[in-house]
Amino acid sequence: MSKKEKLQELEQRMINDKSLPLKTNLVFGEGNINTAILFIGEAPGATEDQLKRPFVGRGGKLLDNLIASSGWKREDFYITNIVKRRPPDNRDPFPEEIEAYKPYLTEQIEIIKPKIIVTLGRFAMNYFMPMAKITRDQGKIFRVGGRLIVPMLHPAAALRSTEMNLQLKKSFKKLPIILKKADEFLSAPKNSEKENKNILKPPAQEKLF
Length: 209
Ligand code: URA
Fold this sequence. Notes:
The protein is α/β, with parallel strands linked by helices. Helices cover about 45% and strands about 10% of the residues.
């Protein structure tokens, strides 16, 4: 099966899985299936539910602008969420909802095989790094399970605060160089002193930024 067929099959399995929580539309994800960078948010909002596409509301427009500011297009990357249906009234996803969608996201990541995962917001960040703190760790680079994880603030938070907007922009500006150096970071020897459970800082980070 091709990557595309595998993703289609996975989406169909999700649609058929009646045990999954939340009954709104499935927003599976979209974009370049051969991407080096996968963006992962929290859960769809109202616009995303209506259009069955991730990040197409106000937060999505900000994400598009950030991507464009680095000279890229949204279609260059793949975008999805940890929870693939909208929680009522845009409430935070419950831990059991995140858990229920987890095997599917794991498979989705395995099929796409990105080098870099940019997590948007604390829920997506904590999905990969339960010990991480968004204010402390956003914009840093971590190595988790053979991939680079770059936590960033959620675009919705950046829309609410000028300070957060500036921080998100600053972190986003690092992405082109992270992409360029991804192989170097991924092959760097593990630095056990810096190891923090499943969090590893690539040793070159201090030199870079
Ligand atoms: N917020 C998210 O986390 N994901 C979306 O798809 C839209 C808004």
